[in-house]
Amino acid sequence: MYTRSGDQGKTRVIGGTRDKDDIRIEAYGTCDELNACTAKAAAVLDDDLFPDIGPELMQIQHELFDCGSDLSSIKEDTVWKIGRQSTTYLEQRIDIYTEEAPALQRFILPGGTAASAELHICRTVARRTERQITTLAKIENINKEVQRYINRLSDYFFAAARIVNYRLEIADVEYNRSAVVFREGHNKE
């Protein structure tokens, strides 16, 4: 379980080693954190009430592991694991949930049910992951599809959080100082 190789602040990546505070390590480490948050969201979700979202979260966990693997590679000849089809699938699910949920005009507060709140936590961790990946992409070669996937994933979590509340007949709470920010046809975060 322990190698002691990290005792000096270094860690292995695919193709070499890096300092533990390297932005590449931060990016795939936060991807791992997002995976754990996704597991927590799945654990509080009632599979009987949400037979679609539970399996989607499991698929996302596998894909987050793939994202972490892609982000941890510094080899020139890396065969990437995350491809366009993963992002396309998320877009399809977002479109379905956006169509099902009532239209938004204002920002909403995270919350409602416990499962919705957990999905909002996933959304915010996905946004942090995306910021770290963006920083990494400015200085090193990465799989650009991972960046697109994580961006879309935060939108997915937003849509899924809203659907959980909607199906349980819990209204989203609008941020009371929000101006109208969403126009008809633009129901995304």
Automatic annotation (TrEMBL):
Known EC number: 2.5.1.17
Catalysed transformations (reactions): 2 cob(II)alamin + reduced [electron-transfer flavoprotein] + 2 ATP = 2 adenosylcob(III)alamin + 2 triphosphate + oxidized [electron-transfer flavoprotein] + 3 H(+); 2 cob(II)yrinate a,c diamide + reduced [electron-transfer flavoprotein] + 2 ATP = 2 adenosylcob(III)yrinate a,c-diamide + 2 triphosphate + oxidized [electron-transfer flavoprotein] + 3 H(+)
This protein's UniProt keywords: ATP-binding, Cobalamin biosynthesis, Nucleotide-binding, Transferase
Pfam families (UniProt xref): Cob_adeno_trans
Pathway assignment: Cofactor biosynthesis; adenosylcobalamin biosynthesis; adenosylcobalamin from cob(II)yrinate a,c-diamide: step 2/7
Entry's Gene Ontology BP terms: cobalamin biosynthetic process
Domain annotation Cobalamin adenosyltransferase-like: ranges: 1-163
Entry superkingdom: Bacteria
GO molecular function, a single term: corrinoid adenosyltransferase activity
InterPro entries: CblAdoTrfase-like, CblAdoTrfase-like_sf, PduO-typ
Family annotation (SUPFAM superfamilies): Cobalamin adenosyltransferase-like
NCBIfam families named among the record's database cross-references: PduO_Nterm (TIGR00636)
Family: Belongs to the Cob(I)alamin adenosyltransferase family.
Subunit structure comment from the entry: Homotrimer.
Name of protein: Corrinoid adenosyltransferase
